[in-house]
Amino acid sequence: MDAKDILGLHKTSFPSSIEKKSRPPKESQRKPDGISREVYALTGGMPPLMPSIDASQLKKKHNEKVTWQWLPFTNSARKDDLHLYHWVRIVNGVLPTGDYSFAKYNKSVDIIKYTDEEYEKYLTDPMWTKEETNELFDLCERFDLRFVVIADRFSSSRTVEELKDRYYSVLRAIVLARAASSGDVATHPVIKVKSNFNEPYNVSQEIERKRALSMVLSQTRQHEKRDEEVLIEAKRIAELRMASKVAEQSQLVVATNADAEVTERAVPGESLSPSNVQHPPMAVPSPITDNASTLASLRMLRVYLRTYALEQMVQVSNSTAGVRTIKRVEQTLQDLGVNLKPRVPTKAVCAEHLELRREILTWLNLQKQVQYKEAEGSSYRDGTYGETPDTPKDRTFIPDSLNFGVSGERVGKKDQKRKGHGAQPTAAHKRPRKQKASDL
Question: How many CB atoms lie within 10 A of CB 284?
Fold first, then answer.
C-alpha cells in the first residue's frame, strides 16, 4: 500500500514534461609537465592573469658548470697592496678577470698643491700660519673636504667656517695666479661664484644661516603654535586696515559728491527758500580716490578678469550719482557712438573708457550747478524772497488793569465756548412754535 492507494488514485504515472538534462562530460585536463600537482591544484585549472613561464623552460638543462671558490683579491683604491679573500663565482672553470667590482665607487677630490714660493707671494695671511695651512690641506686631501671631520682632527681650535674660508681663499688665489689671464679660468667653480664680498665663501652669511637654522630646529610645539597665531593675527589686521582704508576713501567720495543728489532733485523754476537750502560746493568726482578704492579691493583677489575690474570701477564711479544721472551718462555714451562695454577690453581701452565716463559725469554735474545758480539768481531778481520782520528783543509789559476790556471780552468768549454744548438757548434765539388748529 502506498500513498496512491490511500488517496484512491490510479497507479498510472504522470508523463514527465521535463526531462533531466544530461550533463556534458568534463574535459579531462592533463597536468602540464614541470608543475607539481599541488601547485596545479591551486590554479584550479584556470589560466593565470600574468604570463607564466613556459613549461619547456622548466625542464631545460644548463650546460654551464658553476662553482664557487674562496680566492684572494686586491683593491686598486688601496695603495698598500693588501690581499683579501672572498667567494668568487666560477663558470666552467674560468676565473674572473679585471679590477675589484667596488673599486669604481672610490671617488676622491683633487686637492691643489702649492709651493713655498707661491705661499710667500700669494697666500700669506696674518690670521694663519704656514704650518696650519699645510695641515689644513693635508686633512682636506685625506678626508675629501669633509670639513666637519677636518675640524675635529685639526690641531688648533678652528671652527668649520674658518677652515672653509681659508681653504677656498687659498684655492682662489692659486687658480688666479697660475692662469695666464682671467678669461681662461672664468668658468672655474671657485672663480665664477658671485657674492657680496667677491669671495667664494661668505663666513658671516654662513654663520647667520646656521644660527637661524638652529633657532628653527630648537623651536617647541608651543613656539610654532604661537608663531602661527601671530601670523594669523597679522593677516587679520592687514585685512581690517585695507577694508577701513577702502571705506574711508569711499566716504570721502560720497561726501564730496553729496551736492549732486540735492541738485538732481531740484527742478528749475521752483521757488526754494535760501534759508532751507544750503549752497553746495562745486563737486567733481575724483578719479584718483575711485581708482585707489577699487584697486585696493581688487588686489585682495590677486587674480581677476579685466572686464570684471572695469565693471567694478564703473560701479564705484556710479555709486556717487543718482539713477537719472547714470541714465544720462549712458545716453550720452550712446549719442557719441561709444559702447557701454568695450568690445576689446584691453588696459588702454578700459582706461580711456573710464576717463570718458568721468568727464561726462563731471560735465553733467557742472550743468546742474549752472541750472541751480540760474534759478537762484532769477528768484532774487523777481523779489520772491522778502525779508521777514525781526522779533523785538524787549516787549513793554502792559498790566491787566489797562486791558480789562480786552481781557474781559476774551474771558467771556471762553466761558461761552465752555457752556455752548450744555447751556439752554435764550428766548431771543428760540424758534417760534407752530400754532395748532385749536389755538385759532
Answer: 15
Give the model confidence (pLDDT) of 94-144 as tens digits.
888 888 888 888 888 888 899 999 999 999 999 999 999 999 999 999 999
Cell numbers that stand for 181 in this block: 689671464
3-state secondary structure of 351: helix
> What is the C-alpha to C-alpha distance for residues 28 and 130, in angstroms, rounded to an integer?
92
Q: Which uninterrupted H or E stretch holds 222?
A: helix 221-256
Residue 385's contacts (CB-CB under 8 Å, 6 or more residues apart) are: 273, 274, 379
Domain end call among 362, 381, 400 = 381
Q: Cβ of 16: how many Cβ atoms within 10 Å?
A: 7
pTM: 0.39
Overall domain count for the chain: 2
CA distance 379 to 384: 6
Yes or no: say if 69 and 76 are a contact pair by the CB < 8 Å rule.
Answer: no
Residue 295 lies in a domain: yes
Percent of the chain clearing pLDDT 70 (strictly above): 64
d(CA 188, CA 193): 9
The helix or strand, by DSSP H or E, that contains position 91, with its residue range, turns out to be strand 83-91
Is the separation of the CB atoms in 272 and 240 below 8 Å?
A: no
Cell 698598500 belongs to which residue? Answer: 80
User: With 70 as the cut, is the pLDDT of residue 295 above it?
Assistant: no
Q: Same domain for 352 and 263?
A: yes
